[in-house]
Design goal:
The structure is a homotetramer of 419-residue chains. Chain A has 419 residues and is of the alpha+beta class. Chain A has 19 helices and nine strands. At the B-D interface, loops of B face loops of D.
Chain lengths: 419, 419, 419, 419
């Protein structure tokens, strides 16, 4: 039973943007909804606070911040003569508010594997559809924008593109909370220079330097924060302990867990369910998913320290007490031989089964491209109406590098083996 | 098994203070200890993020911030000719680092009642004593300072007094994270004006205005943040749901819980245990306590939504989904009659036993005095050596009011009854 | 010949408020006017940069900042249901833009004496009246507000009262530029809590703590910046050198000066001219005054270092090279005897005429009251409509002290005499 | 007569860096010296405040800021094991303090032409040499560093190189005061990553992203601030009016001027004087130069508005009242024909001699390269000791573009002609 609040607070203090106004009752009611409140319990940057202790901010705050920037963007675009109706303004605001609603705990970490065959975009869609039913169709236009079927294409770009309100908020917020002040971007200034040309977002030419700086700041945040070595090491430790837990679960072993976590540990979902939103399995998936957050994982790991499985116990102890593994990064894959040797050492040192050493010595790869040409591009509009891609408009940024995916390989192993 | 880290990182990014240097290996090793790492999982301001979503910072960050300020204070005091030996510097830094080590989840909320007969100062002491054993006596001087038996009294004041590094950090940090920028205090400036006179901390006379502003900012933080109506309402909702859980536990009913939480739900401790640090009961208390954090409470509340006890279920649902109760504040106690009537309404509305209405309609009181004369006072030192209490030195601040405890009474009840 | 600008830039970068929008063409044209441009050459805080080197900001910036805050205040007041027509909004904005137009160089310093019988309010009035003629009557409503004859009294309060946009800007700006971060006030928050009750500005009750902090911050700025000892010493050194210059001028001695400065050095104005705005003398007064700024004084002082009058030469050398005099402050007047002795010493040391020692050894007094009851008071409005004076509403601030003028006496003399 | 100050204040408030400590008595005495105090009267960014009103900061503040950063850099480099003796520390600090001592008013503007045959580096040298005599040889090592003859080359690099304390302060300070927050650089972080390798400054490899951002921020500041169109237009208006004044002076016409300005208007200096520091002409040059600042130029322009020469009068009126000329920028020179036509129009419109139209219609060029390979390069040092140029180490920045000078041509003419 969800009881409706009567006293609708309209202004929220935000350390990043100052005062945030909640624009209208629908947005207010969505924020109050338990499914949105869940985002209070999901950290925006997962385990990054292991390295940057300040980074404990949540997806809840981020979503509110993105709503705030959306309000600014709507105002600027309207002031330049492009029409956005009040309905459209509400819809695009709902879309940005709910863009992360389908994220689970430690989302980037758990993306691959934990919930088989279902990704967070699909979860977002299904949850938004269910909310639309509950809110009697008031979210239909927002869903159209979200699914990119609404005629005004630029509205979708405000929600998801190279310069969407999502990025403009999270880059600023993440640099604020990590204390990596160099990552701060001029969201306000970029938004002030947004225009709509031929139904697409573009940036006024005098904004080129701001965009260059935005791209460089983003790149800096990637290498200094998002893909920080110790953060990666922590995240993969979590991946490993969950893989082990799922392995034990699949063998039928009993594991302490909250009911929601238990549901996902012990259930697998059929291929194709992503496209079949009417599948009855969704009922229990959503019910459990909307109660699942960072805390379920964290308390279980604490309890599993005392599990009889030595592998699980060791991984959990290292994770909970932040005993991170040594990590090496390089631009090419690590040799199988090196990995094999380390596994042998681990096997000897901890007296493990050889098969279980893969949880302690592992190599994977990560990729990042600062400015993907696959995504929609950042367009610069000149006074005479000419439009150019930023990669072409900027003479200083290296187009080839900017657009190229940077892939790095890493190798982790316990510090005890480090020499 | 706690394995020693080899790669000792020395600088930590902090959004509040910038770069924080970890001063020395002992401090580093204490920070790495699982018992200190636990503070990462305890929010500094408990449920305040229900009102100020940015306030998700932890006791871990706060302790590091206080260490940073301690380093500044030591430098300033030494530069003014007062000796602090290297050992004393390390000891007072250890003392400030560990000053909150005994805090449990939602500490202020749970202080009364949850762990019977044991308060957080005692827990801090016992934990520090155990750490001292583990670290082979290296914490002895810190313990002496902490227990105020070390000869140089001013060292204790740096850890605990009206102007200790604890307050100077938390006021600044809390205002930073809540976004209540008006609460920001000039820690740097206050520290620059610290002096030691007759073995006591004092502030140079030209710092009077800064101290006035510090007191006013602190008062503002009290009423705007620490004792914010909605924060109080949330905290007491949590108190109520835990009281109910303990009541059910005492009746022998089964409740989902992590092992650590279970330990405290189902055990009571003898009177006098606080003074008896050698009591064997401490062994299991500390083992469980050092694994207990905010998450244990939060996940249990989520699970208890589906508990068969209607009272517990309702309280947990309201708590998890942030359906806060209406709260009224006044300067005198609420009439029993009014409370009785509201309880009757609740009873009728929710079809409860009359005895259980006390969980939904309740009145308690809170108190705050900005500048307690019971505590050590803030001393102002003039050029000619004269020393005055700030309440005497400042002509603008109202001595009587400053020193007087402000007590407020509040009454909570479900919004459904609000008119 | 003043040629009209065609390209009307609309947004100005401001380090304090971010982007400032110029609201409309009339405001733009007034800013472009040479008489307003003059404010670029008048430092907001006169000689304060002798102590706080960062404080080089000008009255020009301050006036733009106040316009920015006025826009916020208008928006907030309208949003609470109080009508402000577009004409009124423009008029009150013009009034705040021009509120300092009559300030001369080092205004507070030169207020008494330099331009006999004319104060800056009168100059502002006369200049605004002349602008009104030039702008064909478009400033009439602004003048009515300025002169407090416009029916809606609260508009005048936005321009001049305890919480006017003038103070809200200058306190924030002065603390920003001096680097006295403790003086920062929450202008945004205070403006958000403004209301109009019975045609008067009032602050919502929940804003009490912000107002308390505003008053304390203001007091801090007074004693730490505006009345800083060394700033006083510098300002009175300037007063002394100008007095000497005027004395020489009145004796008919030739002094290097720009034509505008020469005009004021060698002319005196009749009593009563303040009330006689049609007096033909105003023509030349305004023509010269609108070309006079800080630079005229500063370059003259540099040249006068080589003047044959030893007194003027010494004063100018000390001023230009920032060789400030020793200053003592106390709460009661200095004894004539002490002053006399110091003068004798100065006379002997520098071999001066006794009559001239008054330029090197002098005592005056300054006063400040943080919250004058003579001014309009700050009103707090409660939810039930009750209105209280802040001094009554706040229990912590000492009414008697707040409202009482604090007068301090100071004594200056060359450092060479200091013991 | 310069009288020595006795009360040596040691801490200065700076809005950019917080508290600045004056390190030692020699630095203190140099700051107190009239020749250094003159920098209070020279704006760091000349006429930039015409566009960014906040940019009124002075070379005085900047020099103190650079001293502050030098202190940090010395500390970091020492902490990494490289010896810097106390004498060297003082010398390199003196060198950075005085690096701008030879700058005249509006230095970049006046560089070419105003003081014939003498540039500001030479003036700095001569002034420092004279100070060295006055301070009895205490500046000798600083001079050696300044002239790059001191053995430890990296000390010179701290004063003048791609990453010297000069740039690290001015970029941060200029972006702070203009309000162009995007130009803010992480001085603190860059300094933390400085190392000395083979007697040269280098940056740790993990600092690559910070350096990339530094270069991008610098580029942004160039195009957005230093070479802003309206700033250029204002600066060249000033160049024109001074050229006209000098032309009139060379014809023997009388011009209002302070004695110092008069000296430079009516005197020309022999070729070769730059290398002949013992030339007796230096005596009067330095005496007058050290009394010359922005104000001398500004007040003269005000007075010259009423000069009988129509060209000078018009230029001064436009300058003082900020009636800036229209400016066009392009990548190639403007056609003589176009310039000729505009001059004809000006001639007709203002009824000028054809020869005088060059003051109102003119075209020049400006150049900037973000990272000159002619200058010393930024070196990146890897863990294994390898050293790379940043242009090589960074894959994203375009080497060719970075190192290439960007030359732009501009054309100015009165707005009246604009179409």
């Amino acid at each position: 039973m969800y009881r409706q609040s009567r006293n609708k607070r309209k202004i929220i203090n935000d350390p990043v943007h100052g005062f945030i106004n909640i624009p209208g009752e629908l947005i207010f009611d969505l924020i109050e909804h338990p499914w949105f409140q869940r985002l209070r319990r999901i950290k925006q940057l997962g385990l990054t606070h292991f390295v940057y202790p300040g980074a404990t901010h949540t997806r809840f705050q981020h979503a509110l911040g993105a709503v705030h920037l959306m309000g600014q963007a709507i105002g600027i675009i309207r002031s330049k003569g492009m029409e956005i109706t009040d309905e459209e303004a509400e819809a695009v605001t709902v879309a940005i508010l709910l863009h992360d609603i389908g994220h689970g705990p430690f989302s980037h970490t758990l993306e691959s594997g934990f919930i088989e065959n279902i990704n967070h975009e699909v979860l977002s869609s299904v949850i938004m559809e269910k909310l639309n039913v509950e809110f009697k169709g008031k979210l239909s236009m927002a869903l159209d924008i979200f699914h990119n079927v609404y005629p005004k294409k630029f509205l979708r770009q405000l929600v998801s593109s190279q310069l969407d309100m999502d990025r403009l908020d999270y880059l600023k917020r993440d640099s604020f909370y990590t204390g990596v002040t160099e990552g701060v971007i001029g969201s306000d200034r970029i938004i002030k220079m947004l225009e709509v040309v031929d139904d697409e977002l573009a940036v006024e030419a005098k904004g080129i330097y701001s965009i260059e700086k935005f791209l460089i700041a983003r790149r800096l945040m990637y290498w200094q924060v998002y893909l920080h070595k110790s953060v990666l090491s922590a995240e993969y430790l979590l991946v490993m302990l969950l893989r082990r837990a799922m392995e034990l679960a699949s063998r039928g072993e009993k594991l302490f867990a909250t009911p929601s976590l238990e549901f996902f540990l012990y259930n697998r979902f059929p291929e194709g369910i992503e496209k079949d939103h009417l599948n009855p399995a969704w009922e229990s998936i959503i019910r459990n998913f909307t109660l699942l957050d960072d805390d379920d994982i964290l308390v279980s790991a604490k309890v599993w320290i005392n599990h009889s499985d030595k592998v699980l116990s060791m991984l959990c102890s290292d994770f909970v007490n932040r005993n991170l593994y040594k990590i090496q990064l390089q631009n090419y894959p690590f040799e199988e031989e090196r990995i094999g040797e380390l596994r042998k050492e681990v096997q000897a040192f901890y007296k493990l089964d050889m098969a279980d050493t893969k949880y302690f010595v592992f190599s994977e790869s990560i990729a990042n491209n600062t400015y993907s040409t696959a995504d929609e591009r950042i367009k610069i509009v000149y006074r005479d109406g000419t439009i150019k891609d930023i990669a072409e408009a900027s003479d200083i940024l290296n187009l080839a590098v900017l657009s190229k995916e940077v892939r790095k390989y890493f190798l982790c192993y316990p510090k005890e083996l480090a020499r």
